[in-house]
Every structure is written in C-alpha cells, then in structure tokens.
Amino acid sequence: MSLTVLMNAGPWLPVPPPGYGGIENVVATLVPELRRLGVRVVLASTADSTLPVDELMSVFPDGQFGALQRPYNQVCGISHAHLNGVVRALRERDDIDLVHDHVEAVGLAVLTAMGPGAGPALHTLHWDLGKHPDLYGYVDGGDRVRVNGVSASQLARAPQALQDHAVGHVHLATPLAVDADLRPPVEKSDHLVILGRITPGKGQHIGARLAHQAGFDLVLAGPVGPYRRPEELASAGPEAGQNPDVRYWREQVAPLVDGVRVRWVGMVAGTARDDLVASARATLFPLCWEEPGGTAVIESLAVGTPVVAIGRGCLPELIEHGRTGLLADDEDGLADLVPEASGLDERECRQEASRRFTPATMAERYVDLYEQVRRAAAAS
Ligand code: UDP
Fold it and tell me: What string of DSSP letters covers 137-160?
C-alpha cells in the first residue's frame, strides 16, 4: 500500500511513553501494525521518541509532561509550538496523504483552521467530551477533517459538531492481547489493583474505601499528576498543591492509604506493571467519569485478570458481565460484586482480548477509516 500518514502524538511524552501515557501508548501500539500493512508513518512527537518510524518530526527535545502544571498560557505555548511544526511540514511538503491527529481540541482546531491545506485528516478523540461541548463547539472540518471515537459511548456523548464529522469508533488495543489465549495462566494472589492516573474520574478513593470496608488488599498503581513515585511527591515543593490531582490525592486518597490494606506503588511500567495486574484477583475500576477508551481495561483482560467496575462509559462495550468481569451501577453495587470476582475464568478474559483487542485488529480498522476519509476528501 502506498500511503504516507503523519501521526501527530503531541509534545507531552515520547512514544512509547515511560510508563503512563494514554495517547502515546495508543500511537505506540498502532504504528508498528500500520507499517506492517505497508503504511509509511511520519511521527510528530518529541525528539526522544524511540518508536521505529519512517521519519520522526519534533520541536521539543523531550516530553513536556512536567510543564502541564505550569500556568495555562505556558501550556498553550508548548502546544502551539509543536503544532506550528506540524503545520509548517504540511505546508512545505506534498508527500503526506493523511494526517492522523491525536492532540485534543487544539490539534483538531488547527487542522480545520488550515482549510484545504489540512486534509485529509482523521482526528481520534481520546477524552470524554460530554463535559466539554464548548471546547469543540467551533470546529467545522468540512469533509476534509473527520473524527473517530475510541468507543461508541464516547462518540455518542461528543458534541454534535463532532458527531456530524464522525466516521465511527475504533476500540483500543494492546500488544498484550497478541496470543493472549495461548499463554499459560499466572498464579493469582489475593490483592486487587487499580491501574491508572490517580485522578477523581478513576475513583481511587472509592476503591480504597471499599478495601477497608470489605476487607480486601488493594494496590494503587499510577502517577499523581506529574509525580511518578511516592518519594517524588513527598519532596515536591509548594507548587504541587496547585495540581488538582495532587489535591485529590492529598485530600481524598492518601488518608485511606495505610500501606497495609491499601498501598500506593507509584507509576509502574513494563513487566512490573503486567505482573502486578496479572497476579491480581481482579482489576477494579470504581469509575466516577464516563471512561472513554479504557486501555487499562483491555490490558487487564489480556493478562487474564477479570475487571470489576462501575459500568460507566465504554465499560459495557469492553466487558461482558458475568464472563470477563462484573459491572455495577454504583459504589454499593461494586462492594457486592468484589467477592464474586474469583469465580470468573481467566481464560475467558484472555480469549476475549486475543479475539477483539489486538493491534492488528485496530490497525486494519484504521486503514479502512483512512480510505474512507481520503475518499470523502477527494469527493468534496
Ligand atoms: N499506565 C502505566 N503505568 C501506570 C499507570 C498507567 O503504564 O502506573 C498505563 C496503563 O497501563 C494504560 C495507560 O497508562 O496503558 C492508561 O490508559 P487508560 O486509557 O486506561 O487511562 P487514561 O488514558 O484515561 O489515563
């Protein structure tokens, strides 16, 4: 296939990211499979990205994630500097057939503002936009800029301006799903785990409360804002308190973390992350937001760990209640379900992952969408 895609992953983290990194993980999962299908990939990211690509384009030497807690205008400055680099490339060269953009709001706005010079472009939504209709209210991409969701529920909650330009949804994928059904089972220990950013939407405070009430061991894994390790957060200066996730941690989660029943291990990466999840009796998602894509959900299935969750957002699309996990309506329901998790068969989880959530499945779907977007742009 002769197709060159400019994959815009943004300036915040290198690809692949060192541990946590939602969008960057998606790009790192997608790109190798696209290249296997013959797509040429120009990656717009930071200069320390190590993902093999046909060309790397960067403005910043390394990930600017730490700057996200700086004042808003500085954050915008970084975002715009990165996007200027992308726009300049699009204006100066004619070998890009399609832009696949992953940078929230700003990326889409810049692409649409470019008019015909932008297209064709596909913008993948990564966040729950139900709460942010204004952010996207002004976007009008015509037929040259299209969007896709990472779940049907996310797309259904998106502002109308986006739904009018939607070409469907593509569920997320994980390399762990490849041959997941063929791997031998991992010995389970008794703890449950919550894997993800420590942030109100992920509901770590609910999980910690349940662990104390119902008497199960819970491991919290994930960064708190830019702080990846407990020591880092402990030695942070007063500016740390400006970060909403740090405030959430300090006020609602940390008081429940006793180091025995509930532990925080900071950000985990690589095999340490996979082993932690694989050895857990279940992964807990006490969600307080409409989870848009749920990478950690499908990773859990791929390593054979059932998911016990409040069934918000994409969870009902990813988890079959009673087979690969258990879904509750609220916190009380979740408490009732936890003891049932050990009755679920880990093979069902791994089989589901290898059937539905492999990188190849995701890449094939994106290639279809690229064709659709290019056809629509050519006809406009
Ligand atoms: N993650 C990780 N280490 C951590 C916490 C999270 O590697 O300590 C990864 C996790 O495995 C998943 C991604 O970060 O691949 C989070 O993606 P998800 O869609 O679950 O959450 P969000 O993008 O909303 O943060």
Answer: TT---TTTEEEEESSHHHHHHS-H
